[in-house]
Amino acid sequence: MEQNIRDLVVKTISVYEEETIKHFRFILHEYPYHPDTKFILLELQGHSGDFGIAVSAMADWGAQLFTNAYGDSDSALGGFDISSMSQYPNEITQSLDFLEEISFQTKKYIPFFLQECFNEAGGKESRFPFYLRYNNGDVYDFMAEEFPDYIEGLDA
Questions:
Q1: CA 36 to CA 12: how far, in whole Å?
Q2: Residues ≥6 apart with Cβ < 8 Å to 68
Q3: Closest CA to 129 of 102, 106, 154, 97
Q4: Does a structural domain hold residue 78?
Q5: Is residue 24 one of the residues assigned to a domain?
Q6: pLDDT in tens, 79-107
Q7: Residue 20 resides in a domain
């Protein structure tokens, strides 16, 4: 059952690929970052298979920059919406066990999906490190393509 749900999650999330690559291209190659930008943080928020990923330019861990290079709001950084629930009938999604497994499999798959889109958009050429942070504190490093044991400054 776990593999079947994972396959469904992968299939459902794949509809976001083109839009995600397009947004990565914008934040990688076009967005005018504030000169104090040290890295880009993507923060995963949501539950039950429906997730939003907010994108922020960061001067340091805990120090978000709210303006771009021109002093304008950073709202153009936006983010991503990813739902692994959009194609399931309501009667299936009423099962608590199903919802928990979908949520678990989606959270597990999102870094791999985003990594593929990041790479396709030319992310390895980025002048900034990119990180994905979960609400439990786990952090994924897009440049290293892993969940590192330690990131300097994160525990400060």
A1: 37
A2: 31, 32, 33, 34, 57, 74, 76
A3: 154
A4: yes
A5: yes
A6: 888 876 666 555 555 666 777 777 788 88
A7: yes
Read off the DSSP letter of residue 48.
Answer: T
- Look up residue 1 and give its two tokens: 């059952």
pLDDT number for residue 156: 46
Residue type for 45, please?
Q
How many angstroms separate the CA atoms of 55 and 117, rounded? 15
Dihedral sign of CA atoms 45, 132, 105, 84 in order: positive
pLDDT digits 0-9 by tens, 103-140 = 788 888 889 999 999 999 999 999 999 999 988 888 99
Q: Does residue 147 form part of some domain?
A: no
The answer to whether 92 touches 79, Cβ cutoff 8 Å, is no
Instruction: Give the total residue count for the chain.
Output: 156
Distance from the first to the final alpha carbon of the chain: 41
Residue 34 · residue 123 · CB < 8 Å: no
Q: What Å distances lie between residue 89 and 81, 95, 124, CA to CA?
A: 20, 11, 38
Q: Would you call 12 exposed, middle or buried from its count of C-beta atoms within 10 A (0-12, 13-18, 19+)?
A: buried
